[in-house]
Structure formats: structure tokens, C-alpha cells
Fold this sequence. Notes:
The chain is α+β, with helices and mostly antiparallel strands. It folds into three domains: about 80 residues, GIY-YIG endonuclease, CATH 3.40.1440.10; about 150 residues, no CATH class; about 90 residues, no CATH class. Helix content is about 45%, strand content about 10%. The strands form two sheets. A four-stranded antiparallel sheet has the order 6-5-4-7, sandwiched between helices. A hairpin with a 6-residue loop joins strand 1 and strand 2. Helix 3 runs antiparallel to helix 9 and helix 6 packs antiparallel against helix 7. The radius of gyration is 25 Å and the shape is globular. About 25% of the residues are buried. The mean pLDDT is about 90.
Amino acid sequence: MLDGEGRILYVGKAKQLRTRLLSYFRAEYPADKAARILYASHDISWDYTPSEFSAYLDELRQIKRYRPHFNHRGNLTRRSVFVKVSRGPAPRVYAGDAVTRDDARCYGPFRSLGRTGEAVRTLNDLLGLRDCAASVPMLFSGQGDFFEATRQAACMRHEFGFCSGPCAGFVAERDYLMRLETAIAFLEGRTIQPIDRVVSAMQEAAKSDRFELAVRWREKFEHLEWLLAATSRARTAVDLLTFVYRDPGTYGDDRVYLIRQGVVRAGFANPATPVERDAFRAVVAAELAKPEPAPGPLPLESVDEILLLMSWFRAHPDALRHTTPLTEWA
């Protein structure tokens, strides 16, 4: 749907175009969104796609490119659970169900927001990372010469020993960033230092017959153990989305997609002749020649597409029968 100046107002998909368009003309204005879209539109254009998968992919990419006004849900990252690292002088590590422009790193996706949030809270408490709102001003040690008032942390977590206090100048910026790096290394599977610390404290409490304290440390251990396993499973799930997918077209117009780590790198009509197969084989070989992406956070610009592919193959397990490893094509 386009306005009078040719700007895209809305992007949608339909298996039966006539039925879908009639639903807009039958909607009641202004109560129905469809009627409001039609009222603001000056022109309607459409493209044919050979399958439902290609329609999902094209719709996602057009919404990401044009950011249409009426695609409210599509303008946001698809809802899922992530562990995120924010931007700013004292970055936060926190769980959320959408990736925003304020996020610098993103890990996941995970299934349970409650369990993920609990595990992240344990990680923050162990490393002394802040979990306050992004709007809280930060003041590292060495910057207090500009302030005459007595410094006091913005919340009680510092008093309880769960936060290093970057809001009140109780920690140097370098020290805080080292704590943050430990959290990032844990999320990427490069260290288990937080778990080691919990195990040591749990054993020490058990030796001194402080069993209630040992139980609390065991709960923290279970939180971190779950988070470590969940991040490993999430990385594996993304890595497994690496293959050539032959997508059967409705009218025999099949397409092939080169997918690597959940991102569609290239798409072509299904190669039917020797020349076409050689050309596509060269594309696959060129992709394999690129360096293997290092394990780490999800690429922020591709989170929506990764979630789309995960959702597609989870909902259509038979589609995996149409996949071929990249090495076989090359």
C-alpha cells in the first residue's frame, strides 16, 4: 500500500490476493486498522512469490528496508527472549523480549523470560554489575571532584554487596568493564569463572555447617548452569541453520537458498541445467571460502531473519528434507 507520494505505508502477504484485498474494502472505518490503511493509501501494488517461505522472507526484508508506518509489529524485532548487553559508559546485562537500538550485544534466543531473567540476575549479583534503569547517571571513581555532596548508591544492591556502585563512584571504569568482560566471556562459553566462584562458596558454607547458606549458593549454581547450557544450545541451533535449502514452488518454480548460520546469503531459481548448477556451485564455494564466523553474539542486523528461519523449520520439519550441506554442493 502506497501513499500519494509513492511512499510505502504497509507491506503484507496473502495466499489469495483477491480475498485479502476485499477484506480491506469491507472493513469499517475508522475502527478497523485495514480500513485506516486503505483510507491513507493512494495505490496498491503486488509481487508474486513462488512459495510461502519466499513470501515471509520478502515481507520481512521489505519491512526492514522501508519501515512502513502501518507495520507496527514488523517494525520491531520479532518477540523472543534474549540476554542483551546495553551501550553506554556502564553497560547493563539484562534479559528482554526484543532487541532495541540501545543494545550492543545479543545472545539467544531462549524459551523462558522468567528463568532467563533469574539467571542473569544471579550473574549480575556475582560480578557486581548494575541492573538499574538506563536513565540512571553513572559516576565512576576519579570523577567525584566535580561533586561536593556525599556519594550514595541509587539502590540497596550496593549495600548488600551485589553491585559495585558505578552510579556513585565506588568503582573505577576499568574495573567495571573487566567485570563486564567476564560476563560476556561466560555468555560466549569462554570462561566458567562465575560458576567456579559459586562452587567454592557452596563448599565453604557446607564445611562450616552453614547449610542454609549452602542451599542458597546451590540455587545460584543451578541458575548459572542452566544459563551456560542454554547459551550453548542457542549457539548450536543457529550454527545448524547452515545448508542449501530447495524451497518447492507452488507451480513448480522451485528456488534454492544458501543459508549460513540462520541468514539467507543468496537465493536463485532452482538450477536445472549443468551450466546453472556450476554457477550456483561457484556461489556456494565462494561462501565457504569466507572465514568461519567466530562464536559470539548474534548479528544485530540479522536477528529478525534468524528468528524467522528458526520458526519456519520448527513449524515445517519436513522442509529439512529439502536441505543439503554446503560441502556437498561445493
